[in-house]
Amino acid sequence: MQIIVTGSRGKLGVGVVAALREAGHRVIEFDARGERGPDSVQIDLTDYGQVADAIAGVEERHSGVDAVVHLAAVPAPGIVPDTALITQNLTMTINVFQAARRAGISRIVHASSETLLGIPMAIDPPYVPLDEAAPTRPEFMYAVGKHLEEELARKLVRWDPALRITGLRFSNVMAEEDYAEFPSWQHDTSVRRWNLFGYIDRRDGGQAVLRALENAAPGYDTFIIAAADTVMERPSVELLDAEFPTVPRSRDIVGRETLLDITRARDVLGYAPQHSWRDYV
Ligand SMILES: NC(=O)c1ccc[n+]([C@@H]2O[C@H](COP(=O)([O-])OP(=O)(O)OC[C@H]3O[C@@H](n4cnc5c(N)ncnc54)[C@H](O)[C@@H]3O)[C@@H](O)[C@H]2O)c1
């Protein structure tokens, strides 16, 4: 496939681009930053004209795009003022979804986020492991934006039965060099309580995007994408006893398994995370 990846130069984008290229796909990078290259376009995704034009083609570099992976965003709260954050993120997503639809592209994967599950968990989650059946509970503007992007996609697919849009609710993205910090968290269970001790290796993030492009059914669906384990040495049940003692447990929790449930991503998409921080420290 010829695949446009927005936000390709970002932390997650690097892992996604590598996974797609390794699988033999041609990737065209859309990002505001980055060097000049034959498969790379410098673009401001908040400008619909630029997005529509570039998706239709850039010089002789690409035509006949099969899929769009939309990762570009202001990636966390507190980087820019709240209104700028939600305006920029929604504008980019509206522009990318609309330009892709207008160009007849029927496969779209976009980066949603674990944040809409209730992070920073100041209020306990309804149950653990937390899965996609739990109602979204955004607690800040960044997460509200991710919720609204999911809703936008849900509405768009109603108009076009061939359209496949997949929202991947990534946990906290890690590059290999980030694992050096993990041992410093082990003495205190409260340090990583805020996201139920979750993370995702960016290479596994890339695998999740690949599987979504390959296996998503028509319509809209959303999946939690996390590593198979937590960021902690202690068994997951001990973490729950310490930080979430009264939260109902929906099933037996084994060993150090993730408390952000990836069962649906495994069953529906064929996602199978390969990387654990334990192999790198
Ligand atoms: N990093 C995490 O822990 C995390 C967790 C869950 C979800 N996400 C989501 O994953 C996606 C990627 O996050 P990341 O951590 O790689 O972020 P990042 O900031 O490292 O990368 C984002 C990229 O988007 C580009 N970009 C931003 N605004 C742009 C614009 N107007 N025009 C063109 N390019 C623009 C940036 O240049 C950057 O290269 C985002 O949608 C983010 O919300 C990230």
Automatic annotation (TrEMBL):
<feature type="domain" description="NAD-dependent epimerase/dehydratase">
    <location>
        <begin position="3"/>
        <end position="184"/>
    </location>
</feature>
<comment type="similarity">
    <text>Belongs to the NAD(P)-dependent epimerase/dehydratase family.</text>
</comment>
<dbReference type="InterPro" id="IPR036291">
    <property type="entry name" value="NAD(P)-bd_dom_sf"/>
</dbReference>
<protein>
    <submittedName>
        <fullName>Nucleoside-diphosphate-sugar epimerase</fullName>
    </submittedName>
</protein>
<dbReference type="Pfam" id="PF01370">
    <property type="entry name" value="Epimerase"/>
</dbReference>
<keyword id="KW-0520">NAD</keyword>
<dbReference type="InterPro" id="IPR001509">
    <property type="entry name" value="Epimerase_deHydtase"/>
</dbReference>
<keyword id="KW-0560">Oxidoreductase</keyword>
<dbReference type="GO" id="GO:0016491">
    <property type="term" value="F:oxidoreductase activity"/>
</dbReference>
